[in-house]
Design a protein that fits this description.
This protein has 170 residues and is mainly beta. It has one helix and ten strands; from the N terminus they run E-E-H-E-E-E-E-E-E-E-E. Strand 1 and strand 2 form a beta hairpin. The chain is flat. 15% of the residues are buried.
């Protein structure tokens, strides 16, 4: 069993060493809590994925449990591109709890051949002055605080990851 990780990130769901679910801003990634848990399992392997409908071929992002076009639940997981270009970038001086200020956000543009055309994402490992429109960025994953869940009278600690993008070093 993995050990419970406490984090130095402001806004973690731990108060006095106890898990406070209502303060948890990160998704519950365990199969017992989330039907799109393969998305997080794939992130842990460095893959950025989403769901594709086997019936009509529609690709949704974020991933879901049913196709938003035909409502079929016969879905498969497909990989998304790990790089994109910045179409617009800005920073938030007053970010939500749990994020450092300033929070750099970017509107990304993906390759025209892919169904995912644009996405608003968080940029990390850079300052606003370090990036500009047209710069290439890449997917990065990072650990977020673990969370405990009760499964059959036992407490299981679930490690978690999430994603952001960072500038590609030239």
């Amino acid at each position: 069993m993995a050990e419970l990780k406490t984090s130095q990130i402001v806004g973690t769901p731990y108060i006095d060493g106890k898990y406070a679910a209502i303060l948890d801003m990160w998704p519950l990634e365990a199969p017992e809590c989330n039907r799109i848990y393969p998305f997080y399992d794939n992130l842990k392997q460095g893959r950025w994925t989403t769901t594709k409908c086997k019936k009509c071929g529609n690709i949704d992002y974020p991933p879901g449990v049913a196709c938003t076009k035909c409502w079929s639940d016969d879905l498969e997981w497909v990989d998304l591109p790990k790089t994109a270009r910045i179409a617009a970038v800005t920073e938030m001086a007053g970010p939500p709890t749990g994020f450092e200020s300033p929070l750099v956000m970017a509107w990304l543009g993906f390759d025209k051949s892919h169904p995912l055309k644009h996405l608003l994402v968080r940029l990390i490992n850079c300052k606003l002055a370090d990036v500009k429109n047209g710069d290439e960025v890449k997917l990065v994953t990072f650990e977020v605080p673990s969370h405990p869940i009760d499964v059959k009278k036992e407490t299981k600690i679930c490690d978690r990851v999430y994603y952001a993008f960072e500038p590609v070093k030239k």
